[in-house]
Amino acid sequence: MSQCIIQLVKAEKASVADTKAAGTILHMEWALGFVKSESPAGINLPNFEDICQNIGSKSLGFGNVNNANPTEEPLPFIQEHEVPFLRKLRERAFEVTVACHELLGHGSGQLHGTETWSSIFGSNANAIEECRADGVALILLTCKPILQIFGYTEESEPSADDLTYAGWLYFAYGTVKGVSTWDPATRGQFALLNCMVKAVPSFLQLKVTGDDLVIVMDRTKIISHALPAIENLMRHIQVYKSTANATAGVACFSEFSEVDETFADYRDIIVRKEPARIQYIQPNTFLESGHVRLQEYPATREGLTQSWVERRV
């Protein structure tokens, strides 16, 4: 299926070459800041569906946001022996994930017809689209030619297989943490996690011990068991999007994105165990006597507050 997605993207590019620009991704090592409470690690622009659908889009990845994780940040829900492994590889795995998510996730899957994705799928559009983009990223994390573009092979350190496992494990970790909140992105991630749990219980288990929750993932079953389940869900969502079949598409997505009593119980544990959110301290620029001055702030609550006071928005 990974090879199929690559071929489908090539075919789509050829079929709309006269009207739609080929998708590209630009990796920026340093993003100055965002006028919002959170800083995205990647983004697909512009946010106008008709332009993206008919003309094309540009994907951006922000290196300094991806690398902003504190070195000793707690990683709850991860088995103790896997914490060093995930700490070592999470930024590298997430870089590949973001690139695949933005460029080949959001950047593919044209909606045929004159209407837009949101006008057809309404309030479910964003959640389903985020699910589709994340699903494409998970699939392509298993694709050796994709990983080789980023320098990961069977002979590299870390190896391509390690990068694949780190990417899937970090996705599961982020999704479990996301259960404490609920927005289109976390709902889409939850649908994929639930798909894995339902389709392949032996691959992914969420084990409760006392007041703790632990993610147990069998890396030997990613290709053989988990990948086909995700591919099947993505195939259905892709067809429903391309054919503008909102009724079937929403029903398919809702089957996996609705939270049952088991996950509701998990949420209570997650909220109690989740570490404090990372606060991104962003700099400001000031124009003084024709010169631009960069003002940075200490990584403290006071620094965060002062940065927003001086941003004057």
State the main characteristics.
single chain; 313 residues; mainly alpha; 3-stranded mixed β-sheet; two-stranded antiparallel sheet; 13 helices; 53% helix; globular
Structural account:
The structure is a single chain. With 313 residues, this protein is mainly α. 53% of the residues lie in helices and 12% in strands. The chain has 13 helices and seven strands. The strands form three sheets. The chain has a three-stranded mixed beta sheet. A two-stranded antiparallel sheet has the order 4-5. A hairpin with a 2-residue loop joins strand 6 (284-288) and strand 7. Helix 4 packs across helix 6 (125-140), helix 8 (160-178) crosses helix 9 and helix 9 crosses helix 10. The N and C termini lie far apart (46 Å).
Tally of separate helices: 13
- CA(first)-CA(last) distance: 46 Å
Report the portion of residues in β strands.
Answer: 5-15%
Total strands: the figure is: 7
Main sheet strand line-up: 1-3-2
Topology, pairings included?
Elements: H1 2-15, E1 24-28, E2 42-45, H2 49-54, E3 58-62, H3 63-66, H4 83-106, H5 117-121, H6 125-140, H7 144-149, H8 160-178, H9 184-199, E4 204-209, E5 212-217, H10 222-242, H11 246-257, H12 261-273, E6 284-288, E7 291-295, H13 301-311
Parallel strand pairs: 1-3
Antiparallel strand pairs: 2-3, 4-5, 6-7
Helix pairs in contact: 4-6, 4-8, 6-9, 6-10, 8-9, 9-10, 9-11, 10-11
